[in-house]
Design a protein that fits this description.
This is non-specific serine/threonine protein kinase. InterPro entries: Leu-rich_rpt, Leu-rich_rpt_typical-subtyp, LRR_dom_sf, LRR_N_plant-typ, RLP29. The chain is mainly beta. It has 5 helices and 36 strands. The strands form 5 sheets. It has a 17-stranded mixed β-sheet, with no helix packed on it. A 9-stranded mixed β-sheet has the order 1-4-6-8-10-12-14-16-18. A 4-stranded parallel β-sheet has the order 20-22-24-27. Strand 2 and strand 3 form a beta hairpin. It is elongated and about 90 Å long.
Length: 534
């Protein structure tokens, strides 16, 4: 009986054997013992130690740093292998050559700041296999870029940002970096002209020289940079005309920032041919003439900032066909005329619009109705409807210091709106009681207009409000007692109206300066003299 095998057992045996074979196949092969000559092991070989030449070059850089509060160089303890525990150093595992040096100051709570103090050592030029060199936000690395860096022919990325590097931008050094694709020397103290030698590096995809003291014009050799996608020359002292070749030959441009310089002349119409452009900033220059009528051709545009120039004329209607535009700033120019009819159906992605400090005209109610997408109106809705919807995503709207007339409309929705400034116009009518529907509003400025009537008590329901300025109008009556519950308000001004009665005796109203209530009829209570007892 003991030797007898049941039919069930005979059937199960092959299945058990098959299971063992499957498990064995999934297990890793046994490791070869040390010193074994067989081919059983497939472990990767250990990485090659750091090249002695590269180690010496790195220690040369460390010697040039006199102060290091970042703690990074403390990990460079003199051990033989700089590819192991030396922070910021990366090596090729097969050759042991240093291919990347990335040193970035760790963030600290302000006002504290970590930094390195010293100079860039010429020994960095000995890292001949280096592909990436990043020394960012070290604050106190000064002096010039060493000429020896021209030997870094394999370098693809050079970021020397946020420090005190000075002198001219060394074009002869940079032109030796034949593989360079990404260049940023932003936030230093470089002076002199833009180096024309950069035009000899056709592989450049990014140039960022912002935040220096560079002057003069853009070299014509830059027309050779056909792969350039990112160009930031902002916050310098550059002058002359914006080159037309930016739009004619730099067809890959996606970001162009020339802001805070001294560029003059007109905006080249050729920029409107940049089909990949998403961000264009020409703000704070001396540009004249009109906004090119073809501006709407840049269909990929997300952000357009051309404020603080000397531009005149009307706003082109084509601009309001930019379906992806979320930021529009045309403020502080000499623009005139009314908003074009095209705004009625355009800008569905708009988040922020600043048209302040111009000479624009038109009714404020028409404007609010215009910026509302047409799809929000039902078939039977009248074009003169008085419940007005703001674009759902709109957060910032500034129309201050123009010549806008009419009356503020009744608001139907605007939960995303954070900032509304229509001060310094000729707006009349009354403050609509529906203003409370702007539930996310943090700043409301309707000062220096011709608004009359009383202050709606519903304003007190705007729980997010931090700034309220209704000064310089013709408002009458009292400041509503309900304002006493506006505890989150930080600034308010009621001056220059015809208000009377007791100021709400709660923060912040009883702590504001007396000037916030000046020029009214008979306001009383802190911070003004006490009200008379009747």
């Amino acid at each position: 009986m003991a030797m007898q095998v049941s039919k069930k057992s005979r059937l199960a045996a092959p299945s058990a054997l098959l299971l063992l074979l499957v498990v064995a196949a999934l297990l890793p092969p046994p490791r070869a013992e040390a010193g074994h000559d067989g081919a059983g092991g497939d472990d990767e070989p250990p990485p090659t130690p750091c090249s002695p030449a590269d180690r010496a070059a790195l220690l040369g850089f460390k010697a040039g740093v006199t102060v290091d509060t970042t703690g990074i160089l403390a990990t460079w303890d003199g051990g033989d292998d700089c590819c192991g525990a030396w922070e910021g150093v990366s090596c090729d595992a097969a050759t042991g050559r240093v291919v990347a040096l990335q040193l970035e100051a760790p963030p600290l709570p302000p006002p504290r700041r970590s930094y390195m103090e010293g100079a860039l050592s010429a020994s960095l030029g000995g890292l001949e296999f280096l592909e990436t060199l990043v020394i960012r936000d070290m604050a106190r690395i000064g002096g010039a870029i060493p000429a020896s860096l021209s030997r870094l022919s394999r370098l693809k990325q050079l970021y020397l940002e946020g420090s005190m590097l000075a002198g001219g931008v060394p074009g002869s050094v940079l032109s030796g970096m034949a593989s360079l694709q990404y260049l940023s020397l932003a936030g230093n103290r470089f002076e002199g002209k833009l180096p024309p030698e950069l035009g000899s590096l056709p592989g450049l995809v990014q140039i960022n020289l912002a935040g220096n003291r560079l002057s003069g014009e853009v070299p014509p050799s830059y027309k050779n940079l056909s792969r350039l996608a990112y160009l930031d020359l902002s916050n310098n002292l550059l002058s002359g005309a914006i080159p037309a070749f930016f739009g004619q030959q730099l067809k890959s441009l996606a970001m162009l920032d020339l802001s805070n310089n001294g560029f003059s002349g007109e905006i080249p119409a050729s920029l409107c041919g940049l089909r990949n452009l998403t961000d264009l900033s020409l703000r704070h220059n001396k540009l004249t003439g009109v906004i090119p009528s073809q501006i709407g051709s840049i269909s990929s545009l997300n952000s357009l900032s051309i404020d603080s120039n000397l531009l005149v004329g009307s706003i082109p209607e084509s601009l309001f066909g930019l379906q992806k535009l979320w930021n529009l700033n045309l403020s502080r120019n000499g623009l005139s005329g009314s908003l074009p009819p095209g705004i009625r159906h355009g800008l569905p992605s708009l988040v922020s619009m600043d048209l302040s400090h111009n000479h624009l005209v038109g009714g404020i109610d028409h404007f609010f109705r215009s910026i509302s997408p047409a799809r929000r109106l039902t078939k039977n809705a009248s074009s003169d409807m008085s419940v007005i919807f703001l674009p759902r995503q709109l957060q910032h709207l500034d129309l201050s210091k123009n010549s806008i007339t009419g009356a503020l409309p009744e608001f139907g929705a605007g939960a995303s709106l954070r900032w509304l400034d229509v001060s310094g116009n000729a707006i009349g009518g009354q403050i609509p009681s529906s203003v409370w529907r702007l539930v996310g509003l943090q700043r409301l400025d309707i000062s220096r207009n011709k608004i009359r009537g009383t202050i709606p008590a519903s304003v007190a329901s705007m729980a997010s409000l931090r700034w309220l300025d209704i000064s310089g109008n013709a408002l009458v009556g009292r400041i509503p007692d309900s304002f006493a519950r506006m505890a989150r308000l930080r600034h308010a001004s009621f001056r220059g109206n015809k208000l009377c009665g007791k100021i709400p005796q709660a923060r912040p109203f009883n702590l504001l300066p007396a000037a916030a209530y000046a020029g009214n009829l008979c306001l009383c209570g802190k911070p003004l003299p006490p009200c008379r007892q009747i």
